[in-house]
Amino acid sequence: MKFVIRLPYFAFEYVELCYNALRTHEVEEPSVLSPLDFLFGLFSLDIGVDLGTAYTLVYVRGKGIVINEPSFVAIDRKTRAPIEVGARAKEMWSKNPKDILIVRPLRDGVISEYEITARMLDYLIKKAHEQSWVPVPRPRVVVGIPSGVTEVEKRAVIEATLDAGAREAHLIEEPVAAAIGANLPVLETRGSMVVDIGGGTTEVALFSLGGIVISRSIRVAGDEMDEDIVQHLRNKHNLLIGEPTAEKAKIDIGSAYPLPQERTYMVKGRNLTTGLPDSVEVSSIEIREAIGGSVNIIIDTVKDALDDTPPELVADLMESGITIAGGAGQLRGLGDRLREEVNIRSWLADDAMTCVARGAGRVLEDYNNLRRLLTGPERGSTRH
Ligand SMILES: Nc1ncnc2c1ncn2[C@@H]1O[C@H](COP(=O)(O)OP(=O)(O)OP(=O)(O)O)[C@@H](O)[C@H]1O
Ligand SMILES: [Mg+2]
C-alpha cells in the first residue's frame, strides 16, 4: 500500500518564509527589542506603502508590489460607511452613482479625509497580508506620505497603520522614498536630485550628506494635466468630458516635447450645445499645448530648486543627472524637455510608478542606516 502525504502549497511557502526570515533577519537594537517583537519579527512581513493621491501601492519584501490600487473609496452618502475601496471604487466613479459618494481621500496631496484614508489603509494592508500564509499578522510598515502633511495627519496615518495590525509603523516623505527606490546615493556626500511627479503633487528634492538639502513641493502634477485637457476640450471643442477620459488621452498621446511622429486621438464626450454624445479628434500637438501650463510650472519648480543649489552640488548633478519618478513623470519627452531647459541630463527611473513603495520597503531592509531618513511624530510607533 502506498501513502501519499500531500502538504498544502502554503506549507511550503511558510517553511520558505521562516527560513528566509531566520537567514536574513537582523536584530537591530537588541536593547529595545522585546522578546515578543523579536518573535513577530521572525515571522511577519516588512511592508512599504506608497499612500499616493492617485494610487496606493503596497510592496512586500521578497514579493515585490502586491497591491496597486487607485486611492479611491466609495462610501454610502447617508451612513458614510465604505462600500468599495480601490479599483472597484474608481470604476463606480465614472458611472456617477446617485446614493454613493466617491471620495479621493488624499486628493491634492493632503489627507483631506483622514477617517476614510484610515479605512483605505486598513483595507489594503490587510489585503496584502492576506496574500501571505503567515499566521502572525503583524507586519512592520513604512508608509510614504506627501511631504508637508501636518502632525495630526501623520499621527492619523500611524494610528491607521497600527489599527491595520502593524507591529511597527513608520513614515517617510515621498521624495525620500522615491530617491531610495530609484537607487540614488542618498547617504553619500555627493548631490543627487529626484523629481517625483504623481497625481496631486510634484516634489523636488536635492540630497547630500545623508539628508535633504533643498526641497520643493507643489500641487501641480498629473491630475492638473487632466483638468487642463477637460478645460481645453470644453473651450476649444465645445465638448464635455470627464477626468477619466482626459487621463486616457494624456497617457495615450500626451507629451512635454515634440514627438518624432505626432499622433491623433478620438475623444468621446457630450456636445455642450446639443447635449448629445459627440466625438472629436485631437492631435498630440494640441494636447501638449493644453497641458503646457502645468508642465511649465513643474519645470520652473525644478529651476527654482536649482537656483538655490550650492555650486558644488550643481557640479555633482551635472555628472549624475536628475532622476524623474512618479506616474506623471512618465509623460513622453519630459526628460528631454527638462534637459533642454536646465542643461542637466534628466531621465526616468526604472519602474517610476513604484519607486516610493519600493523605497519605503527598502528602509526596513537597511533600517539602521536609513532610519534617519524617516519622519513622523515620534519617528515611528509600535503597538503590542
Ligand atoms: N504613461 C503615463 N503618462 C503620463 N501620465 C501618467 C502615465 N501613467 C500614469 N500617469 C499619471 O500618473 C499619475 C499618478 O502617478 P502616481 O501613482 O505616482 O501618483 P501618486 O503617488 O498616487 O500621487 P502623489 O505622489 O501626488 O501623492 C496620474 O495622474 C496618472 O494619470
Ligand atoms: Mg507619489
Would you kindly provide a written description of the structure presented here, covering whatever features stand out?
- The chain has helices at residues 9-24, 35-43, 87-95, 114-130, 151-163, 174-181, 222-237, 243-253, 284-290, 292-307, 311-320, 334-342, 355-365, 367-370; strands at 46-51, 55-60, 64-70, 73-76, 82-85, 100-103, 140-145, 168-173, 192-197, 202-208, 211-218, 239-240, 264-271, 277-283, 322-325, 346-348, 381-382.
- It has 384 residues and is α+β, with helices and mostly antiparallel strands.
- The chain folds into three domains: 46-177 and 356-382, ATPase, nucleotide binding domain (Nucleotidyltransferase, domain 5); 186-220 and 295-352, Nucleotidyltransferase, domain 5, CATH 3.30.420; 222-292, ATPase, substrate binding domain, subdomain 4 (Actin, Chain A, domain 4).
- The longest helix has 17 residues, at 114-130.
- The N and C termini lie far apart (50 Å).
- Mean pLDDT is 85; it is low at 1-33.
- The chain binds adenosine-5'-triphosphate and magnesium ion.
- Residues 50, 52-55, 109, 146, 174, 198-201, 221-223, 247, 250-251, 254, 326-328, 330-331, 353 line the site of adenosine-5'-triphosphate.
